[in-house]
Each structure stands twice: as structure tokens, then as C-alpha cells.
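2024-03-11 09:14:02 DEBUG pipeline.ingest accepted 1 chain
2024-03-11 09:14:02 DEBUG pipeline.ingest length=170
2024-03-11 09:14:03 DEBUG pipeline.predict start
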Amino acid sequence: MSPAARAGMSLLALLAAGCASSGIQGGVFHSEKGYQVSLPGAGWQVARDSGADLELRREHPPGGMLADATCGERVSGRAPERLVRYLTFGLRHREDVRTEPVTVGGHTGARSVLRGTLDGAEVAVDAVSVKGEGCVYDLLYVAPVEAFEAGRGDFQAFVESLSFSSRATR
């Protein structure tokens, strides 16, 4: 694995929040925190050693994505633009490409696309934070700069698949 790919995986590891996943059925991840996302296309593997609700990795082209939710008053009162910046705290020499408001699954949030370095390697990141019923739902895609565009379509489908249920156990 290239240094840039390892750096991207390191960013995912840094961002994993220590949450346990609930399960995958029929290509859909169902979280106990009341949300679901569809798994992306071929080549993405579930990382079993992650602290995020769901972490996916791909070797060729290299990249990783995750879904994670944080519930409680500590995060639910913060602005989406601020929350999405928290997703990339481990990134150095940051260059924001763009930040914009988003609506996903009927919930508002923010999306940031940026570049930076991690462990000496250049990576690109697409980060989405969406506020819901007392929770913040984070979706993140990271890849070496040269492989970033190869996974953007899969990540966009991942983001668009985010949906919510009322059976959350927070």
C-alpha cells in the first residue's frame, strides 16, 4: 500500500469514534443509532477493526469511507459547518476546496471537500455532517489525491443512500 493510501486509512482510524456497528443485511448497513446506508460498489470491504459505526476500505484504487453517528446535546446544538470541520482535525496543510450546505434524507447539514497531508502524504477528503433527531451523522471519504476522483461516485451514492428510522437506541 502506498504512503498516501496508508495516510488515508490513518485519517479514517483517527476519525473513528469508538462506536459499535449493528449489522448489514441485503447490502444495507443498519445502525442501532437509527440510520441506514447502502454499501457502495465492488471492491469495498468492511473494516472489522474500526471504531466507526461502519468503515469501508478499497485497495485498488485506494480509498476509504465511513459512516458514524454521535448522539447527545454535546454535538446536536453545533452548526453543521463547524461539525464537518471536526471530521478532518488530523489533516495538516489543509486547503479547503469548498464547503456548502446540503440536505440528505430530509436533514440539513454541511459538506466540505478539501486537500491536505497526513503522515506526509497528500490526501483529498469529502466530508458530510448531517444533523438529525439529537444526533449528528458523519459520512467521510478519503483517498490519495491521485485516486480521489475514482471513488467519488461511490461516495456520492453512499451519501444519497442515507436514511433514518425511528428505532434508534442511543
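2024-03-11 09:14:41 DEBUG pipeline.report The domain at 3-146 is CATH 3.40.1000.10 (Protein Transport Mog1p; Chain A).
2024-03-11 09:14:41 DEBUG pipeline.predict end
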